[in-house]
Amino acid sequence: MAADKDLIQIQNKEEDQKILEKLKNVKHKIAVMSGKGGVGKSTVATNLSIALAAKGKKVGLLDLDLTGPNIPKMLGVEDERLMGTDEGILPIKVMDNLSVISSAYMLPHKEMAIIWRGPMKIGAIQQLLADVVWGELDYLIIDLPPGTSDEPLSVAQSIPESEGAIIVTTPQEVSLLDIYKSLNFAEKLKMP
Fold it and tell me: Which of 98, 159, 172, 179 suits a disulfide with 53, CB 3.0-4.6 Å?
């Protein structure tokens, strides 16, 4: 039992090192998050990425909203197929200075639901973080799943040097209740 635990810790450290290596040429990493779904988080992440790319910045957009990966549709690249090299997975080029990766590209068909427990979701997120070859970027915009559960926590811990978080909400009372949880999450994980 102890040997299994040690092996898992070694594998996690190796995965974390691989993630840091893949992201070493990314100047700024910004998470876009929300306390609940349906508030426009993915729209903000997409529009921010397009605006930065239009200003001449090299931008990667990473859609980690596993159960609602809508960004490829928003960008009109939902029918593209991922390509790989010996170095890893190549992001889909959307326009000059903007590339995207999404869990949507990992599904055999668009209508397929992701019915995974936490460990499988974390594994998919870690794979996307560790295997994508972004190259040099000015910005990596990371669209997180809504809430403050395992998936956003895993991303925050895997990318400790992120510049911070943009937290998206709407003026409804139920959204505002959840925003305080997201603010608390970002503060505790030192995501300004």
Answer: 98
CA–CA dist 101, 71 (Å, integer): 9
Q: Are 72 and 102 a contacting pair, CB within 8 Å?
A: yes
Quote the longest CA-to-CA distance of the chain. Answer: 53
**Per-residue pLDDT tens digits for 111-161:** 777 777 778 888 888 988 999 999 999 999 999 988 777 777 788 788 767
Predicted TM-score of the model (pTM) = 0.86
Buried b / exposed e along 139-151 (16+ C-beta atoms within 10 A): bbbbbbbbbbeeb
Q: Where are the alpha helices (DSSP H) in the chain?
A: 2-22, 41-54, 71-75, 118-131, 150-158, 173-188
The band of 187, judged by pLDDT with boundaries at 50, 70 and 90, is confident
Whole-angstrom Cα distance, residue 133 to residue 89? 6
**41-60 pLDDT, tens digit each:** 999 999 999 999 999 999 99
Q: Residues near 104 by Cβ (< 8 Å), separated by ≥ 6?
A: 63, 69, 70, 71, 72, 73, 78, 110
Rounded to 5 degrees, what angle do the CA atoms 178, 180, 181 make?
Answer: 70
CB 154 within 8 A of CB 126: yes
Contact 73, 42 (CB under 8 A): no
